[in-house]
Amino acid sequence: MKQPDLFSLSRKEGFRRFADAPARQRPETLTRMQIRALGDDAAEDYHDSRHDWHANFGIVQTPQLDAIHEDLDQIVASNRQDGDRIRSAAVIDALPGLGKTTIANLFARTFHRQQMRRLPTVTAAGHERIPVFRVGLTSNTTLRTLNRMICEFYGHPATDRANAATLASHALDCVLSCETQLGVIDDIHFIDLDRRDGMAVSNHLKWLANELPVTFIYVGVGLAERRFFADGLTGKNVALAQTARRWTRLGVDPFRLDTDLGRRRWRSLLKATERRLVLAEHRPGMLVSLADYFFERTSGHIGSYFTLLMRGCYRAIRTGTEALTRDVLDAVRLDEASEQARRQLAAALAHGTLPSALGDAS
Predict the structure, then answer these.
(1) Contacts of 42 (CB under 8 A, 6+ apart)
(2) Which of 3, 156, 214, 308 could form a Cys-Cys staple with 183, CB 3.0–4.6 A?
(3) Over the chain, what is the mean pLDDT?
(4) Residue 77: which of 189, 215, 172 has the closest Cα?
(5) 63-251: CATH topology
(6) Contact of 42 with 34, CB cutoff 8 Å
């Protein structure tokens, strides 16, 4: 079994590997007869290469991804203020399973590649150029841990014993020395604004935005519902909140079947992904013919869709079916949210209260 390429995007070395990785090589699609002719060991290696491909075959350019990348590009490109000016930030705020983190990471990768193509790998002062830093928060993030995570991304040596203020100073030095222009902070919904330390971290994010000359992209779940844009304030105090004036909220919607455009987009997703499958019995149009079934199983959430696709491909190879049939996919268990919604969606599709994904297909 081939070992996965293990790295962390919360370290500069890992992010660089992610950003600089070449396109993965697609395995050849063999017929059943050709697979049988390989022999046991060669066939096992071939199957393993296909498992690896299906788990990592790349990103589909969905309308949601394209729209948010266009907004992010506009926000980042317009943030060219000098160091004495506050830059606006972007926040990707949506439900789980809609690709928020993937969207942010891909934008950061594109930005990294653009900067490294245009600028020297070493700054004028002789420091390593790092266009992007990225960290993910935890459920017990404090001022000190947030500052430490930023420092650890850069590999700063003095992170073990320093206090929060010293680490903040180190983080600023890293950003300035490496001429970083973009900072991605994921999972900010872990900040609990009802707790004193949570409010302190929220305020510290404002300090970072004031002091670090970078554009921030924050990623989180249900931030509007958590009063994040109101800084946790209520009543008349909401007018004093800074976040709502500084952050541009970008939402991510699931795929839908209740409009002609939504159904076309859903079919386009299936068409785009089925072209990448490496299965002996797969034929064009097989996924699209199951468009209603895939929606029933995933509720239009792209994270659940790709999980079903990857697990289904694995099962199709292991069982020798070599195609994504309904029987193969029925044997795949998905996330609990999708499983709970499945019966209701199936009934809506069966009774016509939810239009079929193939209803307006030409």
Answers:
(1) none
(2) 214
(3) 88
(4) 215
(5) Rossmann fold (3.40.50)
(6) no
Query: What is the domain partition of the chain in residue ranges?
Result: 31-58+256-351, 63-251
Please give the C-alpha separations between residue 302 and each of 13, 57, 98, 125, 347, in angstroms, as whole numbers.
Answer: 28, 15, 6, 44, 21
Cα separation, 215 vs 72, in Å, equals 10
**216 bridge partner residues:** 183
Lookup: tokens for 189:
């919904």
Tokens of 13: 């070395």
Element (H, E) at 244: helix 243-246
Residue 286 CB neighbours (<10 A): 16
Instruction: Please check whether residue 200 is in contact with residue 194, taking contact to mean a CB–CB distance below 8 angstroms.
Output: no
Burial annotation 101-118 (CB, 10 A radius, 16+ → b, else e): bbbbbbbbbebbeebbee
The pLDDT tens digits for 211-233 are: 888 999 999 998 877 767 665 54
What is the Cα–Cα distance from 354 to 338, expressed in whole angstroms? 17
Amino acid (one-letter) located at 201: V
